[in-house]
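Priority: medium. Attachment 1 of 2:
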């Protein structure tokens, strides 16, 4: 708890720092020319750990005639976390480079030395907390290694997306990009460098990812990752009164994403459909509103490698990575990537309350509270041949029992994964929002313990 309080204090200091040096002098009623905001990149995620680094946002307002909308925004961030997740990102956004169109460009490199992998099909894959939790269990009680449910994953992403108006609230959107994945078993030797013998990870134990490879569940053509250019297009309906924490209106999108693959991976050419619906309902003035979203991602043609099934497609890359399902960007309180399948559906429901509005200097702040409920489920499952897996397991790893890894009940696949929690929001001038969310899963198969804290920027949706 001391660590969490420290992170919250640092976040508040950062917020005040941003209000004093960022985005030009507040004495100007209208901002003009170039304005720079710089911050330490500090956050906390129950799955990724404490993040430290730096970020900068450079805005250009021109002669100020479009203020508070900017003409151009350049965002740069470089950060790392205590659980060996890296974030190196450049993001450009403008509604004026191409008149009457919004153009956004993202270039990101995301190295992850310990990416979560809990098997396929949600509850059909059994999760054993004792296999990875050295703080609660000893080797005699069943502890294996904290790297058991991990693999090494590096992502390079380039995307360019454009939106244009059709009529009133209706818009069209199109984009292209590249996703390049490099995947391997956890590099235990690298993680053990400089550590005391009692803190080192064992380097002789197979993790679940390696077992899936040995059991032929993960195909040889996908086990090392791959290079996937993509094209995307769809429609948007947007009647929100503002982008950041809207109090009324709707946002709806429907789009298709075609991902290409080459060589030995050519079978992974695929087409996915995404549907998203967000609704913001005012209850009491600007103080209380009800917000919810419902979404789905479906594989409608071709095959998709397992590593891209953890990637949630989006028309506008606001957060650095949208992973689904499980974790701080989809189902809070549930293990990151816990629900891995070809298709899924999800919903987030929040009551948003502004409990206190106040000013510091010439900056306007509010303190908000939002209890929430998250739910997700599989709609398109991986198909398992239990007898075939048992036969392969008997040869590849005879010490492993099928019942320790798989739930044979086919109904388990489609059971919903649920969590609930509460968030605290500290916002400056309505747009810059420090978010602290805490959540717990309803089922221990989605994660044991109560330390599911997420400190980020902005509302989830």
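Attachment 2 of 2:
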């Amino acid at each position: 708890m001391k660590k969490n309080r420290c992170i919250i204090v640092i976040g508040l200091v950062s917020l005040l720092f941003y209000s004093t040096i960022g985005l030009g002098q507040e004495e100007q009623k209208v901002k003009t020319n170039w304005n720079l905001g710089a911050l330490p990149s500090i956050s906390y995620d129950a799955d990724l750990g404490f993040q430290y680094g730096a970020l900068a946002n450079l805005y250009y307002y021109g002669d100020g005639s479009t203020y508070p909308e900017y003409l151009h925004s350049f965002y740069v961030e470089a950060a790392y976390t205590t659980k060996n997740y890296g974030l190196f990102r450049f993001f450009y956004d403008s509604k004026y480079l191409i008149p009457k169109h919004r153009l956004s460009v993202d270039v990101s490199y995301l190295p992850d030395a310990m990416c979560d992998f809990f098997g396929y099909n949600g509850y059909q894959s059994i999760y054993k907390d004792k296999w990875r939790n050295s703080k609660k269990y000893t080797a005699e009680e069943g502890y294996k290694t904290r790297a058991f449910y991990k693999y090494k994953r590096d992502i390079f992403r380039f995307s360019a997306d454009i939106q244009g108006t059709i009529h009133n609230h209706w818009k069209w959107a199109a984009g292209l990009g590249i996703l390049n994945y490099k995947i391997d078993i956890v590099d235990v030797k690298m993680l053990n460098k400089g550590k005391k013998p009692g803190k080192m990870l064992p380097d002789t134990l197979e993790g679940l990812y390696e077992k899936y490879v040995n059991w032929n569940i993960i195909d040889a053509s996908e086990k090392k990752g791959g290079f996937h250019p993509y094209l995307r297009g769809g429609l948007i309906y947007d009647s929100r009164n503002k982008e950041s924490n809207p109090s009324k209106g709707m946002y709806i999108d429907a789009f298709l994403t075609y991902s290409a693959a080459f060589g030995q991976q050519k079978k992974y050419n695929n087409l996915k459909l995404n549907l998203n619906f967000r609704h913001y309902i005012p209850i009491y003035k600007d103080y209380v509103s009800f917000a919810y979203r419902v979404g789905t991602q479906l594989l409608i043609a071709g095959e998709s490698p397992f590593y891209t099934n953890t990637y949630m497609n989006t028309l506008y890359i606001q957060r650095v990575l949208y992973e689904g399902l499980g974790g701080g960007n989809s189902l809070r309180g549930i293990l990151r990537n816990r629900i891995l399948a070809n298709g899924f559906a999800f919903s987030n429901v929040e009551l948003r309350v502004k409990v206190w509005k106040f000013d510091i200097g010439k900056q306007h702040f509010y303190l908000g509270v939002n209890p929430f409920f998250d739910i997700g489920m599989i709609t398109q499952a991986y198909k398992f041949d239990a007898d075939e897996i048992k036969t392969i397991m008997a040869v590849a790893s005879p010490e492993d029992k099928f019942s320790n890894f798989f739930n044979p009940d086919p109904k388990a696949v489609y059971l919903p994964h649920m969590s609930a929690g509460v968030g605290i929001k500290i916002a400056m001038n309505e747009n810059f929002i420090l978010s602290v969310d805490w959540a717990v899963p309803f089922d221990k198969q989605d994660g044991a313990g109560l330390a599911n804290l997420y400190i980020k920027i902005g509302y989830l949706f």
